[in-house]
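The pair is set out directly below:
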Amino acid sequence: MATERIETISVTPATWDEDSPAPSDLQLAIRDLLRRPPALFGFLSVIFVIVWALVPEWFAPMDPYTQNLDITLKPPGYVNEAGFTYWAGTDELGRDLLSRIIWGSRISLIVGFVAVLLSGAIGITLGLVAGYYGGIVDTIISRIIDIALSVPFILLAMSIIAILGPSLQNVILAMAVRTWVVYARPIRGAVLSAKEYEYIVGAKATGCRTPRILIRHLLPNVMSTAIVIATLYLGRMIIIEASLSFLGVGVPPPTPAWGGMLADGRSYLDTAWWIAVFPGLALMLLVLGINLLGDWIRDALDPRMKRLAD
């Protein structure tokens, strides 16, 4: 008869320091960010471009508007007689391309952030009102959303800018007029379910005013959804601004804008490729970084994504 040998393994319990505070949500989010190289790359890319946009005079080696027809279409690395190096070359008017790219980041980020904030404010407000009141109010707002979605965005934006004239403010307005619908529908759906929560029903029963219910109780429930949408659409807003500038209905020249630089460089692709390639790379890296960062923010704010990750 075989004898069974039972070995006893002593396990020392892990010590827990009761005095040490539990990590906060921000600390957990930072740890998760550091463990995800794509999200970290996106975060660093966005921060780098934001610093560019805030203080472009610290990084731009020259004035982006200064023209010198004696050095037009010089390749990257060109050194003039004074010993100054044009690291990204010059454009068709002899302007330093690197300086214009750095200053152009300000236009892209201003348009992107302001358009997202403005369209988000409109969409969140209408989504809250439609979801909370329901009935005829919900029907009217839903039909307005359907009409807005049926109009091609580029056509609507070009029409607005053609009527009001090309300017930074009109570009932002044209983008916000159409993109608020991407917030309104998800917010409306979230409010339809959130307004049935017990504490919302209790607030109504105690005579709480409607504005207080919307702002104090319902808005915090939908802010995570709104933040995720805003992050994912920020890159799209920058692409749309570049598209409008490329078509000639965006920010008017000589203001440096990445889309305008791409439009200027398309005529010189065979002789001066750097005029279009470098602004295009800057635009691509910024939008890629925003999208990677947006994926991380979505996972951090959505409890369902957290459970899937675990």
Residues 1-17, 305-310 have pLDDT under 50 and may be disordered. The chain has 13 helices and two strands. Strands lie at 78-79, 85-86.
